[in-house]
Fold each of these.
Amino acid sequence: MLLEEHEQKWREFWSRSGIQLDDELLQSTWYRSLYFLRCITRRGAMPPGLLAGLINDTPAWHGDYHTNYNIQQTFWSSYPTNHGDLAEPYDRLIAGYLPRAKWIARRVFDMDGAYYPHLIYAYEPPDPDACKSENGRQYLHHWWAMTIGVNGFSIQPLWWQYKYSPDPEFLKETVYPGLREVANFYCAFMDQCDRSAEGKWSSLHPCRRNTGAGHQPSSVTETARSTWRWSNTFSPPPRRPRPF
């Protein structure tokens, strides 16, 4: 009975997608990689940490979540292979981190919105103000932790999840709140940037703070584009940078 149930689940899994290539090695790699993804993640589980479990019990960087691409890339293949449910742990991690991301924006940057740092740990309390430690059990390491590109890059996979598997409720309750707050942060950040004589911002300008665009500066514009698209559908809408 147990074996039959096991085999049936895998038949259902493989029925969702498949490829046929002339390159047998590439085709085998595709199937082995998808199999590995299913082995390390599933709906309701904790998302795998750095290097996705391909190491020992003492992983580098404590097996944390690096949002410069390390954690995102683990789940990228789930969307085009019709296995978006395997990315549910990532969606839940980022959505659950939103209260802390808003706290970081306020406490570290003195800005509105939400800021997802370069480094996230599992099981971080969502409300830093309720923690006994002075810093709310928040760790931000060197200047990478302050780069603004990772902010939009962290929320972007939730948008992709919606694009591959359109669910209005998921968009409203999970995706848009984070998108809106990250867009609010970018607007507040831009308000403090110097502008050229033509009134233009530079995405690489330090904006009078010890920060830079850093990883994935294009995620800034991608976040704005996605947020403005839905700003007339859900409320409250995101703010906009101050006028010229």
Amino acid sequence: MGFAIMARRNQCILRDEKRFLRSKFVKALAREAFSAFGAVEGCILDVGCGRGFWTKMLRSSYTIGVDIKNAFDKRKISPRLDFILADGFRLPFKNECMAGAICFDVIEHVSNDLDFLLELNRVLKKGAILLSAAPNKNRLTLTFKKLVGKPVKYPYHVGEGKWHLREYSKNDLINLLKSVKFEVCSVRGVFLGRFPNYGLCRFPRVLEEWSQGLLVKAKKLSRQGFLDTLDSGGKQLIDMEVLCE
């Protein structure tokens, strides 16, 4: 009986996940994110990748999904896409070996966002781009709760077994990333309305303060230029043994 209940619960979780991944919010985030990131020649990390939805969308010569849970869809693995079961606080990679990284809806869940970002900084090459998406603590629904005298308290329960230990404003994210030696290139609001489908994907930037999410693009501080390619022609695949310690 217990197994049947667990199986039904897992089916419900997968169904809800599929609905979320088809939502207007995700489409808006994808458009903003990949126009900001562009194509990268080199290895990109997707830290906190879950089942690998964003991992497979990245345009790079090699992409590695990393998560503490073994939920990655192994059908996505290919010569240019891999998965490693690892803790984001102790990534199994050498210093300055990654050409870029993303972490979407991750930092609000981790126990120490500062240490988490320091570890990401360690493995990124000088000049590498980090894209991070996080919930906006001033989004419309929470602003309304404050107005009616019911402000959110953290940890904040957001779904089946999911909690936000903290959330962020635009200035919170800028200050956090600057404190771990990233240069913040931009912070954009993503989706205006009720999460995840009732609202606007495109809206005037003056309303970003109340957007659902925030997408920050940051660069690891460097005296050099932007990203280095991992090989002269940009075609050679990366040996995992070279990247891992």
